[in-house]
Write a structure and sequence with these properties.
heterodimer, A: alpha/beta, B: mainly alpha, 3% strand, globular
Chain lengths: 263, 455
């Protein structure tokens, strides 16, 4: 790969008692790229994300951030590195407005008084820079926003804080067609700004549309990391469901080589 | 209201406020019609705020004035202020707890325990323990400690606040009895004789001081409004229209000047001189005038201002709303949820102590049964009637003021209206129904807000 990986995980093992959830998983995310993380239910996606965030600590393996080995033991640590997580349930406060949500926990203040003006300007600028036009006022309560607008606010929050890595967990799961398009568009723009985006999704159409690289997990191990243009949707589905490719394509051979003999 | 392409919606949204560059150059001034249009939109969306309470207050005052001679006397007006202040202090503290979706059922009896601590220090101990700074300080400190205890039990041990405070509600009635037992006054009460404490609820400010208070309140309010709006304009953001600001400041000025005009008149029931036989001589005695703003009013104003500032202008207040709105989101944002939870119970119990002192001052004695049950429910009712939600995340200090006024007017008006053996019964039933009505408005407006997306 020509780009330098911001986030790199090698040989990650994680088990819960006798259950090995992650076995020798490798994962990386590059600046300016959307890396999709796909896999069937129980493949270990959430566990991997929780290891990245520090909610779980890894049993063994290497966690590199910007090339340096780091120890991430709590969400606080990952936030400190500049990794932002946008969860499925969004983690926004309905009773607060957009500005208040975007600055939640990191409010600006002057002499102990909230600096509303500077926060409102910064929030508006961030949304404008992302070409978000669907939000009429940054002083709107979040409860009045649609699902797509909420995703937008959650993603804009990550931009506002200059995060280097943004992990999006199923950002389009509950959205309609038009809103999905808006959010995917936003994800693309986020990557264009030089952010390393990790995009977790079950929706192969969305993945094929927005991802640059696709990492496939199968039963707790890495089934393959492929570039979007060297794989089609059918192959992707096969990788997710069986962990291997058996169509005899050049891609199947190269995967078989990196993964060792297919099971 | 989210579809960008719907022409009607975009027009409405553009009026709600502006973000996109094209819209931010829209006219800001002369926006009073727009402002009211938006206000009506909010009302229709279910965000009623204090409007039902204000309307109810006006209706009740008119009603009681019409059907009852004594209600609208100046004397009764002053009386209502000092009586209602206890409920208002309690309700102000409860707003903090309700904002987190919690409840403090023990606030009333907490006030009782704090008042007994104060009263107990006043009798049977020598100087300096019986001086008012010590006794009041001890009562307030007791409140803080009780709040800390409740907060720790709720946030660390994770007992539901309903249960913790129900237990304390019961236990504190006993604690109050124990403290009063140490020094029995007549019928188990402790008489309050400290001048400063008595003046808290019963004393009046000099006439000029009332006007100074009005000047400070109105000027302070106008200054904060104008400063905020000009700063926003200078930064290129939408500020509150000047006309709306003038209207608000004007309304506050009219109301507060009116109140002081009324309170500065002699509201004594018997103003005329009477002739009295003193040592065989007939002497003409003029009763001292009862006039001036009660001292409890500036105390309410100061606490209201401080707590409102804390809730709306500081990070602490923002975090209180956040925890009340979505605790998980607040936790992920790095907010110390437990600390916030403990702090609101401390604020509530502190205000309960203030309320306890006020009630003791009002009746010039501390009696165990003045703090049981009823006053806490009235205070919760006051906050909810004012517009604070029982479900957390929504509420203001102003709700406690307006709701407290409604509750006091009902209490006072009904007390004189329904005399006879069934008087208290009717009073209880009506107060209960009003509380139910307010909770219903809260629940329904939430549902409406949910469907219109304008919570």
């Amino acid at each position: 790969m020509p780009e330098e990986s911001i986030l790199e995980l090698h040989h990650i093992y994680k088990s819960f008692g006798p259950v090995d959830v992650l076995k020798d998983v490798a994962f990386s995310a590059q600046a300016g790229e959307v890396t999709a993380l796909v896999g069937d239910n129980g493949a270990g996606k959430s566990t991997l994300v929780k290891c990245v965030s520090g909610s779980y600590s890894i049993d063994s393996g290497e966690y590199l951030f910007e090339g340096r080995p780091v120890h991430v033991h709590s969400p606080h640590d990952s936030a400190g590195l500049g990794i932002e997580f946008v969860y499925q349930d969004l983690a926004l406060c309905d009773n607060l407005d957009i500005v208040e949500n975007m600055f939640l926990g990191r409010e600006r203040h002057k002499r102990r008084v909230l600096d509303e003006i500077s926060m409102e300007k910064a929030a508006a600028e961030t949304l404008t820079s992302l070409a978000v036009r669907t939000v009429s006022s940054v002083r709107q309560r979040v409860s009045s926003l649609s699902g797509g607008q909420r995703q937008t606010v959650a993603i804009a929050k990550a931009v506002l804080w200059n995060s280097k890595v943004v992990v999006l967990d199923e950002p389009t799961a509950a959205l309609g067609v038009a809103q999905t398009a808006q959010v995917l568009d936003l994800v693309r723009r986020l990557a264009d700004r030089g952010v390393a985006v990790v995009f977790i999704s079950h929706n192969m159409v969305d993945v094929m549309q927005v991802a640059d690289r696709i990492a496939v997990l199968y039963l707790g191990r890495t089934a393959g990391v492929v570039r979007r243009d060297e794989v089609n949707q059918q192959q992707l589905v096969e990788l997710i469901t069986t962990g291997t490719l058996s169509d005899g394509s050049p891609l199947a051979e190269s995967l078989a080589q990196t993964n060792g003999a297919p099971a | 209201m989210t579809k960008q392409h719907d022409p009607v919606d975009t027009e409405e949204l553009a009026e709600l406020g502006v973000l996109s560059p094209a819209a931010s150059t829209a006219p800001i001034e002369g926006g009073i019609r727009e402002y009211f249009h938006n206000y009506m939109l909010r009302l229709r969306g279910g965000d009623m705020g204090s409007l039902p309470a204000v309307c109810g207050l006006i209706v009740l005052v008119v009603l009681f004035s019409a059907i009852q001679d004594t209600f609208h006397t100046l004397y009764n007006f002053g009386n209502m202020l000092t009586e209602g202040a206890g409920t208002i202090f309690l309700a102000m503290g409860l707003v903090f707890v309700l904002l987190l979706g919690e409840i403090d059922l023990s606030a009333g009896t907490t006030g009782g325990v704090c008042a007994f601590v104060m009263a107990r220090l006043m009798v049977g101990f020598g100087s300096p323990w019986n001086t008012w700074p010590i006794t009041l300080g001890a009562a307030l400190l007791t409140g803080l400690i009780i709040g800390l205890t409740i907060g720790l039990l709720v946030s660390k041990v994770r007992i539901p606040s309903f249960v913790v405070t129900l237990a304390f509600f019961l236990a504190f009635q006993g604690v109050a009895l124990v403290i009063s037992d140490w020094h029995r006054g007549p019928i188990g009460n402790i008489i309050v004789s400290d001048k400063v404490v008595l003046d808290f609820a019963n004393g009046n400010m000099p006439l000029w001081a009332g006007w100074v208070l009005v000047a400070i309140v109105v000027a302070g309010y106008a200054w904060t409004k104008i400063a905020a709006a000009t700063a926003r304009r200078r930064a290129g953001l939408v500020g509150e229209p000047m006309s709306v600001m003038l209207l608000k400041v004007g309304a506050l000025a009219v109301v507060s000047i009116g109140l002081v005009l009324l309170l500065n008149r002699n509201r004594s029931l018997n103003k005329g001189s009477i002739f009295r036989n003193v040592n065989g001589h007939t002497v003409r005695v003029t009763p001292p005038p009862v006039e001036g703003v009660p001292w409890v009013v500036p105390v309410v104003v100061v606490l209201f201002t401080v707590l409102t500032f804390a809730l709306s202008r500081t990070r602490y207040g923002r975090h209180v709303y956040a925890v009340g709105g979505n605790e998980e989101a607040a936790r992920r944002a790095g907010i110390g949820v437990d600390r916030i939870r403990i702090s609101v119970f401390m604020v509530c119990s502190f205000m309960a102590a203030v309320a306890g002192i006020e009630i003791a001052s009002n009746v010039a004695s501390v009696a165990p049964n003045s703090y049981n049950g009823n006053i806490l429910l009235l205070a919760v009712g006051a906050a909810v009637i004012g517009g604070t939600s029982l479900f957390g995340g929504k509420g203001r200090l102003l709700d406690a003021l307006i709701g407290g006024a409604v509750v006091e007017v009902i209490q006072n008006g009904m007390a004189d209206l329904v005399s006879g053996p069934n008087g208290p019964a009717v009073q209880y039933i009506v107060t209960g129904l009003v509380l139910l009505l307010a909770a219903a408005v809260d629940a329904l407006s939430r549902r409406r807000a949910g469907s219109s997306g304008l919570a």
